[in-house]
Amino acid sequence: MELVSGSQEKYFDGGFLDEVIAVDTECYDDRAYVPGRESIRARYFKNRDSYIFLYDGGVLAGYISFFPVTEELEREFLKCRTVYDDNIGAEGVADYSFGCPLLIYSIAVKRAYRGTGAAAMLMDGLSDMLDAKAREGRGVRAVYAYAVSGAGEAVLHKRGFSFVGRVGKSRLFVKTLTGCAGGKGRPAP
């Protein structure tokens, strides 16, 4: 299996959106967690460093979606009143800058690839990318994620995320990154 960054030029037309929606449709029984095409497109075009795909040959096995968010949106997360998901518009997406907060929007793996280490590979890919951002002086200080399943919660616990609060069926977690770094060997998502 191969990790591919969504910031590669071949994705700039947004052609991957149908593949992402197909994976989400398979992964999430509750259709409320399947994002709309236009909201994905708006966030992606605001910050293209927001996806890592896992391919098995030419088949999308899974992906992780993430983006830096504004501090205002971070404050709203911490109130635990609303799940921030498809309701995040492009205005909530920030640029990578030193000390910014990041939201893992989704970790989705097709059923056929569960139990293969696919989620760990995606999280490692994110850690590597965050480590590169830190070396550029644009490291994040905190990573937030909502878990909507026991498996998602297990992935976050395994990576050292702490429970923040419950909002409906979702649970919010956070991981603070020391020295604004990601990457293996350091506090990482």
Summarize the structure in words.
- The protein is an alpha+beta fold.
- About 30% of the residues lie in helices and about 25% in strands.
- It has five helices and seven strands, in the order E-H-H-E-E-H-E-H-E-H-E-E.
- A hairpin with a 2-residue loop joins strand 2 and strand 3 (about 60-70).
Chart the SSEs and their pairings.
Elements (H helix, E strand, L loop, with lengths): L1 E4 L11 H11 L9 H10 L4 E6 L2 E10 L2 H9 L20 E10 L8 H18 L4 E8 L2 H9 L3 E6 L2 E7 L13
Parallel strand pairs: 4-5
Antiparallel strand pairs: 1-2, 2-3, 3-4, 5-7, 6-7
Residue share in β-strands:
25-35%
**How far do the termini sit from each other?**
20 Å
Oligomer: single chain
* Uncertain runs: 182-188
- State the secondary-structure class: alpha+beta
Tell how many strands the DSSP assignment holds.
7
N-to-C order of helices and strands: EHHEEHEHEHEE
Largest sheet: 7 strands, mixed
Number of helices: 5
